[in-house]
């Protein structure tokens, strides 16, 4: 029954060579929920904020059909904050500040009626918390786990347990190399799958994404954007588009996962066109499907006739 | 009439984390000619060697149907030598030595009967020499130019003249950024095309290649290799497969260029599987077309039915 997302709700302060934004609505849970909302609704959100999280931000999430019953508001607490600065090439960034605040004591509670959720994204948070969420789920059909270098280093054992229990792991290329301790990306994917990962997506930023499932490897291109305004949330938007499409179609076959990767890539491409969540706002099925078809044009070629 | 290649014939000494080879047959002209030979023959080669270039290496080239009338043998001269060492990730390398030798005084001469060649690759050599070759051609149909960072820095004016006069420029992603002075690859492609480049291919190594022609952008995946033994010659093999297929089909439409990119990528994937030219040896149409179809499987996805 439904689609559940656990992740952060955050204030993001982002600086790029071209612009900056302070205390914008961010967090993995936010981007995932909004991206997924275009395919499936309502999206059940499990997360935590402080009392400083403004009504305006709750309103935005609710406009995208997020069910916020699972979002704990900590009395007197302060919301998680992240500040980062992107380099000239927009592919690399420095984290300027991470204030965990209410995340430090976060003990995620999945509301009773949500425990039967069938499609689940464990957004990028401490694997210890991802495990706590997994423990509260009844019998999910398809669970996606996102993570990052910080947890690969600092919570390796917990992360290894998470990835054995989920259906799909999404990481980026440098994280895949780090997790597998192997520079060749294809070999790294093999090592990671032997850790117990049933399906694996390796995101490569401006170079697209690779999906590994069963004996299938699928290479998805990146949408060729001339202007990337803010890469923050791209990976979360990818995960949101992917899970939203899977939930909508109730089909986790390899062929449908390929389409889900393209929808995920489409949502990521919208996301990075503008600061914060603005690129995800006010999209339509028409625009999303147009972008999907642009991915078709970008990658299709015919076999020789002879 | 036919396919002409100008490039280097070289002794390559290559070291990787796994193996090494000394004085192996190498050079842009060598890889291009052998890769192209599977599609079109004979390939007319313009280049220069010293007296130390062994009969054994001439025999290899002739086995692949290379016409070596345009290869000058300099009396008492020494053949061009390159030595390089690949890093652990196999994506980056250090050049340990470059001995130009006979290349220093090279004055390429296209045999009279070859000047009507219709399909031409200007392999990676000094743009001054590429211009000299262009000046000797009658009315080629399709000329491809390969180059490298060294010439973008050191022969910028000459290179700018070359790329205005050819039909296609092939460079890698860091070279594209360097040539355009622009970190965004899509924007860089636009800048380069405004320099007068009709079609552009940006090679991205393990991430595939991008083709820009007319209003088309085509993103080709890389073949997912678990073992890369020697990346030397990959770009040249790509160019060789591409021009060989174009020459064979006599079709330079955007749709056929996409296929040519996939054949080029196929030849590059064979090349890097073994040291020196060994990965290109003894291939068959069957194996090449099988690999082409693997690229199809790797990148194909269906639109949603709903």
Characterise this structure.
Two copies of one chain form a homodimer. With 306 residues, the first copy, chain A, is an alpha/beta fold. The first copy, chain A, has one domain (3-299): Ribokinase (UDP-N-acetylmuramoyl-L-alanine:D-glutamate ligase, 3-Layer(aba) Sandwich). Chain A contains ten helices and 13 strands. Chain A has helices at 28-37, 55-63, 127-136, 149-154, 156-165, 173-180, 185-194, 234-249, 254-272, 285-299, and strands at residues 3-6, 10-15, 20-26, 43-50, 66-74, 81-86, 93-99, 119-122, 142-146, 168-172, 199-203, 209-213, 216-220. In chain A, strands 5-4-1-8-9-10-11-12-13 form a nine-stranded mixed sheet, sandwiched between helices. Chain A has a four-stranded mixed sheet with strand order 3-2-6-7. In chain A, helix 3 (127-136) links the parallel strand 8 and strand 9. In chain A, helix 9 (254-272) crosses helix 10. The longest helix of chain A has 19 residues, at 254-272. The mean pLDDT of chain A is 96. The interface between A and B is large, with 44 and 45 residues.
Which helices and strands occur, and which strands form pairs?
Two copies of one chain form a homodimer.
Chain A: E1 3-6, E2 10-15, E3 20-26, H1 28-37, E4 43-50, H2 55-63, E5 66-74, E6 81-86, E7 93-99, E8 119-122, H3 127-136, E9 142-146, H4 149-154, H5 156-165, E10 168-172, H6 173-180, H7 185-194, E11 199-203, E12 209-213, E13 216-220, H8 234-249, H9 254-272, H10 285-299
Parallel strand pairs in A: 1-4, 1-8, 2-6, 4-5, 8-9, 9-10, 10-11
Antiparallel strand pairs in A: 2-3, 6-7, 11-12, 12-13
């Amino acid at each position: 029954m439904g689609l559940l997302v656990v992740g952060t709700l955050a204030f993001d302060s982002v600086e790029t060579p071209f612009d900056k934004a302070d205390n914008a609505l961010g967090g993995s849970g936010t981007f995932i929920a909004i991206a997924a909302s275009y395919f499936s609704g309502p999206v059940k959100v499990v997360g935590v904020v402080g009392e400083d999280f403004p009504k305006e931000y709750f309103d935005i999430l609710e406009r995208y059909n997020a069910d916020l019953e699972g979002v704990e508001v900590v009395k007197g607490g302060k919301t998680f904050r992240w500040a980062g600065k992107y380099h000239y090439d927009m592919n690399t960034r420095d984290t300027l500040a991470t204030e965990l605040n209410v995340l430090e004591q976060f003990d995620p509670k999945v509301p009773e009626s949500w425990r039967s959720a069938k499609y689940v994204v464990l957004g990028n948070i401490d694997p210890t918390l991802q495990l706590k969420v997994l423990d509260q789920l009844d019998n999910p059909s398809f669970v996606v786990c996102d993570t990052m270098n910080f947890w690969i280093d600092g919570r390796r054992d917990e992360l290894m347990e998470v990835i054995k229990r989920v259906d799909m792991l999404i990481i980026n290329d440098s994280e895949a190399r780090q997790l597998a301790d192997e520079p060749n990306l294809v070999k790294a994917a093999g090592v990671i799958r032997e850790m117990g990962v049933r399906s694996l997506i390796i995101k490569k930023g401006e170079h697209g994404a690779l999906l590994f499932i069963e004996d299938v490897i699928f290479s998805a291109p990146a949408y060729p954007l001339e202007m990337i305004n803010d890469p923050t949330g791209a990976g979360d938007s990818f995960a949101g588009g992917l899970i939203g499409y899977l939930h909508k179609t109730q089909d986790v076959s390899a062929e449908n996962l390929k389409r889900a990767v393209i929808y995920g890539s489409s949502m990521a491409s919208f996301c990075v066109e503008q600061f914060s969540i603005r690129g995800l706002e006010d999209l339509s099925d028409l625009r999303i499907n147009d972008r999907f078809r642009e991915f078709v044009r970008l990658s299709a070629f015919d076999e020789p006739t002879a």
